[in-house]
Every structure is written in C-alpha cells, then in structure tokens.
Amino acid sequence: MEVHVSAFAETGPADTVILDASVITMDRARPYAEALAITQGRISYVGDRDGARRHAGPDTDVIEAAGRVVCPGFVDIHTHTDLDLFQDPDYLLFKNYLMQGITTVLAGNCGMSAMDPGILLSRLDDQPPAVNFGTLIGHGYVRTSCGIPADQEVPSDEQLQAMEGVLGKAMADGAFGMSSGLEYIPGISSHTAELIACASVVARSGGFYASHMRSEGDHLLAAVEEGIRIGRESGARVQLSHLKSDGACNWWKTEAVIAAIEAARADGIDVAGDQYPYPFFGWNPSIFIPGEHLAAGKPTLLGTHLRDAGRVRRIRAGIADRITRYHNGSGDLVVVFDWTDGTGRRWQGVPLSRILGERGIDVTPESVADLILEMLPDERDDAVMGTDLSTSDETVRRYLALPYVAICTDGFNQPWLAPCHPRSYGAFPKVLGEYVREKGALPLETALRKMTAVPAALMGLTDRGVLRVGAYGDVVVLDPATVGENATFDRPAAPSGIDVVLVNGTLAVDRRQTDEFRLGAGRAPGLVLRHLGAAPA
After folding, report:
1. What region holds the Amidohydrolase domain (predicted)?
2. For 324-381, what is each residue's pLDDT tens digit?
C-alpha cells in the first residue's frame, strides 16, 4: 500500500549511492544536485558527491553516472496493463515498461477494467508487480456488473444506485477514480447525466474522472465540452485521455480544444490531459462502425444489423466516408497487426491496401470498408487490432507544449509480442529522443517534468515523481545524447539510453555494460498503490 512520508529516519549505510550525476530532482526546494543515496527503498540523501560518499558502506552499490541525467522514475497515468496482468507470470515483470524508465503505472483506463479493483489489488498484494501499480475503475465495468444492457441509454433509479454502490466500494478499496470509454460499448450508450452522477461519487472520495471522450474527431469539440461539464457539475478533477485531433479533416480543431480547456481551467475547473507521442493510434474494427449501429453491442451488430441489407449499406457508407475524410481515401494508412482471413491466410503488420492489392481488388474507400466489415466478426480478445494515422506531427507537438498534459503510453503489458504498437515499448524515450533532442520541441527538463512530477501530482502521489529525502527510491539514469525509441510496428525492441532503473531502491534495469534486465527471482520491488481515500489494506 502507498504510505506517504512525513519523516524519514536513515539507519546505517546506504544501499545505493549514485555519484557524478546531473540530478534533476523535481523538488522546488532543491531542483538540482550531483549525487544521491537510497536507503531501505527511500531517498536518504540528495546533494554533492562528498556528502553522498559519506553515506556509503562496504556493501553499498555505487553507481558512477559519469555526468548522465538522473531523475525520478517515470509515472504512466494511462495504461491498460490490468487487462492481461495474470495471463502469465512474465506479465508481472512489466519488462517493456521498466526498460523505458517507467516505475509507476495507472491501469483501468478507457472505461475498461479486468475485474473489481478490490480483487485486483488484493491479488497483487499476494503477487507483487515489478512496478508500482494503481488502478481506476472502468465505467463500462460498472455498467456491466450492474446488469445494464449495452444499448440501454438511461439507467433506472435502482440501476443508478447500484452503479453508485459499485463505485463507492471501488473507491474505498483504493481506486484512484473512474474512467470512461465513450466511443466503446457500453459507454457509447450512456448520457452525460449518468456520467455526472458517477463522477460525483468519485469526487466525494477525492478521486478523478478520466475519459476516452465520445469523439476524438468529427465531434471532438462537443466531447471536450462534455468532459468539462462533467467536471463542473460533479466536482471531480477531469483527465482527458490521449489527447489528439483525429483525422486530417479535424486537425484544425486542436487550438479550439486547447482554448476550451484553458478557459475551463481559468474558471476553476480542474481539467488536464495525457498524450502518447505518436500520430498513429491503435484500432480494432468496431472503432470504424458509426456509433448508432454499434451502441446495441457486438452480438446485435453481428447477429442482426449485419444481416439487414439496408443497414449494411449505411454502415458501409459510414466507414467509407471516414476513410475518405480522415485518410483521403487511402488504405495505406490503416494497418492490421494480426488477422487470419477466411481462407486461412495470416496477415501481420500490413496496410489494408496491400491485402486488397494481393486479392486483386482496387483500393477505394468502399473496398476498404468491405475489408473492415470482413474483419469485424474476428474482433474478440483483441484478435484483430492495428494502427491508423490519427493526427499530425504538428498536433503532437502542440499538445506536448501544454504543461498540464502528462506523457503516457496508452499501452499494454506485452512481454515482447509482435506485431504491436511501439508506444508500449518506447513512448517515453521517443519524447526524449525525437521531440527533445532532434526536433527541439520542448526542453529536456520540461519533458521530464511531464513524465514525473506532473502525472504524480495528477494522481495525488506526493512521494513519487520527485527526488527528495524521504521520497520513494524510484530513479532513472539516462543519457540524453542517446536516449530514444527503437521499437517499430513490426519489431518490439528496448529503447536506447535508459541505463539504470530502480524501483523503491531495487535495481530493476542495468544496461551500463550489457542490455541486462536485472529483475530476477524473489519478491518483485513494486508496491500496490491505493488512493489515499481508501480504507487500510
């Protein structure tokens, strides 16, 4: 359980000392230093080399940083790492997160939850993760657990009371708040009043409301205003998930989104956001289905709607319209990760245009729509996923410039699976390598703040995202001259330049000599994080 520190008493020599570093602490009282020490999982000294050496004993692990940057461990406020957490023991190692310097993750985003937060966190108490792990509760999970049909738009009073009960228990069990996925089933059916009622329960416990908004493209501005309204009327802090302006026809809306957010913030509404630094997003076939046909749920869509010729024509036209307006009619920009078609042929990491071409079919918006509809029945357990050009590099840079937007992966806990979206392997190093060093889009310290202190504050964590005496020993040693992403859609790979990662003082990654992932047998170093409003574990 997360315990916040009011005082720290050092006992004996330090377990780890880091020397000759460019320490960026994120502590306003002492923003820079050249050395630090860690004792019993917490920072015990921040200062100069000589002072740190005095904390060393015969068994202290001394790390010579050779001028490299030392900063707090990265905090990822937007992940989906709960969805397959207990599938395999390797998933608890969080290798693809630790290798990019992420030491704390928040799961349960986009309205999705794998299970009740209390059960999830209790299981992790018994099977500790390698990173610090907190969770939201998904609004979709809440709806489903209360027996509300996917296409029911307005819950009854009894159903709403049941939802509020589930939310209240989740918050008492340690959830940091509630997420919604309003482009997905069943969130797509919900009305704003329902979301306000749910967010009000979260607000009373001091939690926040994170939203995959109702639209990230054609209706983006209305979706942002809905999120702001939910914050205004519920009193909950609002986290707008993976900010983007989806589709070439909607890129102009970025400045209007920022203006709406900043007007709300000026009006006292606590609205912030997160962002992964890619113009491509992840998709499954149903994301292309116009909402009015999707709301009834997948069984109705597949079993009823797709057997109605008139409705199929409307669905096909809607998909073709999106391909035309968002992608100028091109199937080159929509890629499938892994799909086996009806003939048994497996397609991996290829654009839809190539599939059509190899079948001898002309690439048109309509033929792309037909292919997406062909894939739709195979969309189960993420069996069909891919990537889709969503936004522009200019838009990525614009959102990166906002001080209240945290960096995230929007990723999955994938121990070297392929093909994959590279954000699960390199989102944080990509910012540092591409947008800081190569493009000069923001200063290094600003980027690091958006990876550490900003997301920690948004979660309400006071002793992570900062290097000061008494804080937890989550530490990254990185080389700003070489840090960067190496993963591609075809090939997962560890990033460059992340040399050392410690979680609660335990060495988890050490790449000073070899590409070594140090975490071995024994108790994993991560802690289960419970929101401060929760009952004691």
Report:
1. 61-182, 421-505
2. 988 776 767 778 888 889 999 998 888 899 999 999 999 999 999 999 999 988 886 5
Task: Please name which of 359, 288, 365 lies closest in space to residue 330, comparing C-alpha atoms.
Answer: 365
346: β partners: 340
195 backbone dihedrals φ, ψ, rounded to 5°? -65, -35
Q: Residue 437 corresponds to which tokens in the numbers above?
A: 């060093």
Of 189, 252, 183, 254, nearest in space to 212 by CA: 183
State how far the Cα of 207 lies from the Cα of 198, in Å rounded to an integer. 11
Q: Encode 363-384 in three state secondary structure.
A: CCHHHHHHHHHHHHHHCCCCCC
68 is written with which tokens? 């490299």
| DSSP letter for each residue of 57-125 | -TT-EEEE-TT-EEEEPEEES-B-TTTTTTSSGGGGG-HHHHTTTEEEEEE--TT--SS-HHHHHHHHH
Q: What is the pLDDT of residues 75-130, one digit of tens each?
A: 999 999 999 899 888 899 999 999 999 999 999 999 999 899 999 999 999 999 99
- Phi, psi of 321, deg, nearest 5: -65, -40
The pTM of the whole model exceeds 0.85: yes
**Alpha-carbon distance 420 to 362, whole Å?**
27
Specify the residue for token string 């996917």. Answer: 150
Domains of the chain: 73-281+390-463 (3.20.20.140), 288-382 (no CATH)
Does the pLDDT at position 190 exceed 90?
A: yes
For residue 351, say if its preceding peptide bond is cis, omega within 30 degrees of 0. no
When pLDDT is averaged across residues 234-261 and rounded to a whole number, the result is 95
Give the separation between CA 138 and CA 178, rounded to whole angstroms.
6
Mean pLDDT score across all residues of the chain: 91
| Paired strand residues for 517 | 509
